[in-house]
User: Which sequence fits this backbone?
């Protein structure tokens, strides 16, 4: 490092800037002066010796180095919260602890709201929020590392119980200059483009490959990367296209940095489940306030995506 050691406050400030996409909005939400926040970000960049933010007329966005720092910061704060929760269990107070896993697309779509809503709806609950791919979250629930997860396209198995909550569309994502003129596009048109996808256990990739197999089509992945930030960067440079849920690219679509098209013939959808340990999976076993909190998050996911997501009626 070129400068002094970084501290938790600098990381918290940086994370808020990335989440809001604006130093001005972040300063308002953090209740600090904008020059002080800008100075904190510059100190971070000096410490690492690399730019962490692209600054432009619409605000700011994380560089690849900034995306990595943001991801590691979220993981670090999650670990710190979990340490606090685990150690605090030794006290004799009545505080409850609840850990929830969300995949990256949902963290981007509702992550901040999930934390704020927990504070408002569950005042006596300490929430620990974990971000990981769907397959890793299902493993974490089974291994009792977290209580519950929202996860996509997870297969039923003895250690976990799945409750289907909503259908969510997978979209073709391209550079704006490379977007097909028609909307929707067919799966065959989608697969004709050079594809960037997550690893072989990635939920979106599994959905795409299954649909391709059903249609007798070849699904060739040119760029494999288990990082939504990295895949977005490849697509923003016009190197490849990808398929992602809306939450993964909402900010970039609004800023005209990426374009989306719906995929039809066949309709590309994945199922989001609430994943719980198989033992005690009876919904009635959940505290009523936590159950209501989870359902409010499902409603928010649907609301944020409009006609790209719809709830599944309970059996």
Assistant:
């Amino acid at each position: 490092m070129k400068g002094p050691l970084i501290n938790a406050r600098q990381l918290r400030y940086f994370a808020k800037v990335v989440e809001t996409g604006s130093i001005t909005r972040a300063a308002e939400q953090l209740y600090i002066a904008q020059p002080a926040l800008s100075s904190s970000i510059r100190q971070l960049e000096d410490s690492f010796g690399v730019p962490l933010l692209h600054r432009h007329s619409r605000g700011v966005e994380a560089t690849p180095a900034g995306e990595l720092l943001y991801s590691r910061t979220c993981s670090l704060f999650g670990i710190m919260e979990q340490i606090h929760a685990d150690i605090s269990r030794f006290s004799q107070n009545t505080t409850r602890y609840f850990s929830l896993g969300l995949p990256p697309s949902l963290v981007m779509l509702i992550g901040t709201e999930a934390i704020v809503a927990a504070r408002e709806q569950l005042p006596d609950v300490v929430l620990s929020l974990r971000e990981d791919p769907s397959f890793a979250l299902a493993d974490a629930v089974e291994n009792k590392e977290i209580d519950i997860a929202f996860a996509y396209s997870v297969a039923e198995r003895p250690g976990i119980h799945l409750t289907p909550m909503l259908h969510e569309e997978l979209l073709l994502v391209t550079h704006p200059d490379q977007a097909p003129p028609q909307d929707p596009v067919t799966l065959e048109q989608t697969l004709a483009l050079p594809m960037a996808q997550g690893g072989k256990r990635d939920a979106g990739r599994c959905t795409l490959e299954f649909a391709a197999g059903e249609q007798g089509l070849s699904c060739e992945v040119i760029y494999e990367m288990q990082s939504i930030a990295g895949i977005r960067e490849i697509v923003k440079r016009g190197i490849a296209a990808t398929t992602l849920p809306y939450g993964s690219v909402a900010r970039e679509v609004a800023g005209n940095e990426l374009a989306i098209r719906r995929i039809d013939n066949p309709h590309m959808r994945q199922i989001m489940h609430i994943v719980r340990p198989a033992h005690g999976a009876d919904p009635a076993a959940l505290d009523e306030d936590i159950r209501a909190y989870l359902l409010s998050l499902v409603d928010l996911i649907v609301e944020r995506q409009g006609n790209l997501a719809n709830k599944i009626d309970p059996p």
